[in-house]
Amino acid sequence: MEDKIVIPVVFCFDNNYVIPASVAFYSLLENASKYVMGGGGKTDLSQNSLTLPSQTPQTKTPNRKKSKILYKLYVMHNDITSENQNLLKSTIGQFSYATLDFINAKNALKEVWASNRSKNHFALEVFYKLLLESYFSQYDKVIVSDVDVVFLGDVSRSFLDFDANSHYYIAGVRANNPNEIYPLKGWKEGYKAFSKKEFEAIQYGVGGGYLIANIKLWKKDNIQKKLVDYAYKNAHRLILAEQDTLNLILYPHIATLTPAHIVGHKMWELYGENWEGYIPNIYTQEQIDDARNNPIQLHFIGHLKPWNTPNVAKSEVWINYLVKTPYLKKWLGTLTDVIVSEYLKTTWRYKIMKYIKENPAFVLDFRFYCKLTRKIYKGLWSRIHPK
């Protein structure tokens, strides 16, 4: 007789993200292990890390107990339509080892979201990662994932290897080189206002795209209240909303997953086909090589995604899974709007309006007039003295 192990996986998104969500769900389940033979991989919490071999084949061993895995997928949302809920359920319909449930959070934390100044391409639902204790108290631990991802490997190993009796509140992927956060320019400039202790938590914390949350310890130490209280008081200064909140409150009680669990889609563009320029630091060369060769989660970081910019790096991987979902036709219908939108971004009107939106006080900024004068001068000079 087979035992059954439940692996809860939580996603937080709105109705605008149902197409990428279908890709995330399908790819996760297609690459997930259906059974586990005995324990998982090697766990080394004494070194504040989980050394989890990705995509390690699990062979049948007569002396080890075989347990069936059930993946219980949950969506925390506010506005996903009944039609899209049914389509997402049909997306996972062929996977007998998975279920999908929707939880309407009824606009919880909307005041926090309204106070946040760095919304970028995110939505209110990202803050629901702070509410896991309330909604998933029946579990000792849960996986939490973004949906702008493609899963290419098995997620069960990281879940099974994480010990809910440990003193770690979450496990996630750290920056291989914490100093890559510098320079603090553009969207990162807001971190200059953080204290030295706060900035250390940001530097050495983990990414929010794939996490394992220790609900058992959250309940014991009343973590949700601490997270929510901090978010209410500091929403106006958060740069990466829920990720910053989790790191600032939970650091240093954070375990480290191998880098294969979040692999940015631009890594091959930035570091070459074999990541020649990616130097080991927090992670070993072996772990980095494994992340490149066997990524568990391919994460489309930033505002340019395969569904709105089909030529982004690794978009072909995302599209390869999209065609297996019920959303292909709907996505194809959006391509005309995507193409027109991309063209409009090249026009002067768009660039001027974007500049005004990002710099509302530009008329009072002396630097604006200096830049404008230089551009006019260069334009006139190039006409008077053509090459």
Walk me through what this model shows:
The structure is a single chain. By secondary structure, this protein is of the alpha/beta class. It is built from 15 helices and eleven strands. It has helices at 18-30, 82-91, 110-115, 132-135, 156-161, 196-203, 215-221, 223-234, 241-250, 267-271, 285-293, 315-322, 328-344, 348-358, 366-384, and strands spanning 3-12, 35-37, 66-77, 98-104, 142-145, 149-151, 170-172, 210-213, 254-256, 263-264, 297-299. Strands 1, 2, 3, 4, 5, 7, 8 and 9 form an eight-stranded mixed sheet that branches. A three-stranded mixed sheet has the order 6-11-10. Helix 2 (82-91) links the parallel strand 3 and strand 4 (98-104). Helix 1 runs parallel beside helix 2 (82-91), helix 1 (18-30) crosses helix 12 (315-322) and helix 6 packs across helix 9. It starts with a strand and ends with a helix. Mean pLDDT is 88; it is low at 39-49 and 52-62.
Characteristics of this structure?
387 residues; alpha/beta; 8-stranded mixed β-sheet; 15 helices
Query: What would you call the shape?
Result: globular
How would you characterize the largest beta sheet?
Answer: 8 strands, mixed
Number-wise, the strands total 11
User: Which stretches are low in confidence, meaning pLDDT under 50 for 5 or more residues running?
Assistant: 39-49, 52-62
Supply the number of helical segments. Answer: 15
Rounded mean pLDDT is: 88
Order of helices and strands: EHEEHEHHEEHEHEHHHEEHHEHHHH
Distance between the termini: 82 Å
Radius of gyration: 23 Å
- In which range does the helix fraction lie? 25-40%
Estimated share of beta-strand residues: 5-15%
Q: Which class best fits the helix and strand makeup?
A: alpha/beta
